[in-house]
Hints:
- About 25% of the residues lie in helices and about 30% in strands.
- It is an alpha+beta fold.
- Strands 3, 4, 5, 6 and 7 form a 5-stranded antiparallel β-sheet that branches.
- The longest helix is centred in the last third of the chain and has 15 residues, at about 210-225.
Amino acid sequence: MPETARKLEKLTGITVIQGYGLSEASPVTNENPMRQIKIESVGPPLPDTEQKIVDPETGTKELQPGEVGEVITRGPQVMRGYWKRPEATAETIKDGWLYTGDLGKIDEDGYLYIVDRKKEIIKYMGFTIGPAEIETVLHEHPAVADCAVVGKPDPVAGEIPKAFVALKGGAKVTEKELIKFVEERVAGYKKIKEVEFVKTIPRSLAGKVLRREFIEKEREAAKVST
Length: 226
């Protein structure tokens, strides 16, 4: 998170930059140049690397700067395909472009900003909500140690934003207070509808929130209730 990076820079004097990549791209595609660092961004593409933002539904329409869509990239570091998995390769590599499954946007300088994972986007009443945006807001609350936001199946809305929250030691806050805290800082349709307090938030070795665990939990609960 940008604020964490700024605090580290202030404490240590170390310059923090972001980069981006994935295993299928050996593994880096973007990095901030030292001459012009944008701490909120993962930077422009590396030399000989191209990037586009396309509509998430069809993946065929290129979007304009500032518009959020799926990040696709191509360059000499992009894989030819998955070993003995032609179907998966066809879904991921199209006309030489690697479809990353990540949602992002680019600015007028070509710097990339990662928004969320395409598969983890919450679809509420026809609106698209990025969980990471709401998680960033929740992290601003002094009582919140960690959190994860996922879509909970709902018969009317399709999905509703639900937050799983781990509190700091000794901290106290109610579900109602957190819902109001978020509501005051996001667009109306993005506000969380439920909060469940947990001891810890599962993360990968790389530090990424494992939302999939909570998504599967909510889907299983929905099956039981029906």
